[in-house]
Write the structure tokens for this entry.
Amino acid sequence: MPPPSDDANLIARAQQGDRAAIAEIYERHYSAIYRYVFYRVGDAPTAEDLTGTIFVRVVENIDSFVYRGRPILSWLYTIARNVVVDFHRRGAGQATLPLDESLMTGGEDVEQAAERALTQRRLSAALSHVTEDQRQVILLKFVEGMSNEEVAQMVGKTVGSVKSLQHRALAALHRALGGDGA
Amino acid sequence: MTDHIDRALDDCLTELIAGAASVEDCLSRYPEHADDLLPLLEVAVQVHALELPEMRAVASMTAKRQMLLAYTANESHLQRARRSVRGFVSGFVSLLGEGAKQRAPLGGRLAVVAVAAIMVVMVTLLPGVLVEMGRYGVVGQAAVVAEVVGLVEVQHQPVAVWRPVTDETVLASGYRIRTGGLSAATVRFFDGSTTILGADTEIAFTELSSRRDGSGRRVVLYQRQGQTQNQVQKLADAASLFEIDTPTAVAVVHGTEFEVQVATDGATSVGVTEGRVGVTADGATQFLAAGQFASILPPFTEPTTAPNATLIPTPDAEPYDRSELAQVTRLAGTPTPTATPQPTATALADEEPESPDDVGNPDHPEHPAHPIHPEHPEHPEHPEKPDKPDKPDRGD
């Protein structure tokens, strides 16, 4: 994760009309935003479209954004959450989660690939059944590989709260996957 | 108790993620919590082993272009707003400063006070005025080159040099784009409409604009030569339009898909895939339905039989054969030979005509004479200006 001063500098440049700065914000964070959206909608083309929408919304609001020391990715997640909520509210997100074709290529055994894709699909579906805070902690920690301190900064909580939240998040995910509770 | 499990879980997760311990190692370290920890650690391992979904490169590039396009549009709004506010404030401050510095006579001081009072009233009214300006002011918009095949170049006036298109090429009013042989390009406009340029095609961006509130979206192109396929978004208001001008025709459409082909002599063919397009030739308008096409010849093509070309669309709506688009020419009209070149044809569309009386609609005056684009009959460079020579008043 880039240092806060770097984020502040990028934001300031983007607000002054520096195209390179806004392009850099995109390059740094589009993958994380895409993954967040993918695990919310479970469909690659939809996630790609929504990622585009999110970054358009970013530039539409960049001028009114006030940097308060939290990572810019945190703001991007907030916009992403709103865009995904709008998407589901429109009823566009009711489709079942398809197998991601991109996960079934690469020359490995078809059965293995299908099994792996199925696991991916089950986890994606299960992630949609936990709360927003729980999902974000799981994604930031286990998918994005952030430390507890970084996660705490992202979600605006203490490290202790993050530890407690990850416990509840994993338990909820276990239940959503059909476990007997934890 | 819960705190203790939280800590034990976090320790285990940290070591698992780092690859420093296995699930069994963790459970043996915390046997009192083993039953609680096992399912949580198994889930964590599964999530951690997820293959990270990655955005396709082409989708990422498209999203980035969309963002930069929106950024360009947004930034131009903001710069204008900043300039106007700065100018207003600095003018006001300097006026007051001058009045305070100079020991002006009583009349002069009264004048300054009066001006200051007027300024105060203006400032009071300014928010409302700005809201209205913000709503109705016209701002420049942009387009991006979404896909490129082969040689595709852009030119921006007043620089006459053609430069190769790059991934992030953003086009605005005043730009031109051209494709070479065996080349193609897709241009995506700010309103979501797209134009695909075929090989050896050149278009100029005469106008890309909208009102600040997003209404009145205008895309006006000048197609000098070649072939374009155009997918036009349904436009929400009457002030919005998508227009393609050619040396011999003007096509104005709302929410449709159509092709325009301009031959080297300026002859124009219009084929409609979806929706309806009105085509006016020498002041007479016919509407083309989906599957119909029409061609407009320049005035000197058949001087002995059809100097005043009148355009007739195909009689029925059977899908046209695109490969034959350039070859089919349908002209009719009273053969009244004349030595003077006449305007050839104009294609206009918005509203479907209620009756044949719509032909020769006075709202759409005859197309001004610009036979075969006199500025550059053959030369591919068109450095003077991107606008077509003359344009009929559409009355909007």
Observations:
- DSSP finds five helices and 19 strands in chain B.
- The first strand of chain B starts at residue 138 and ends at 140.
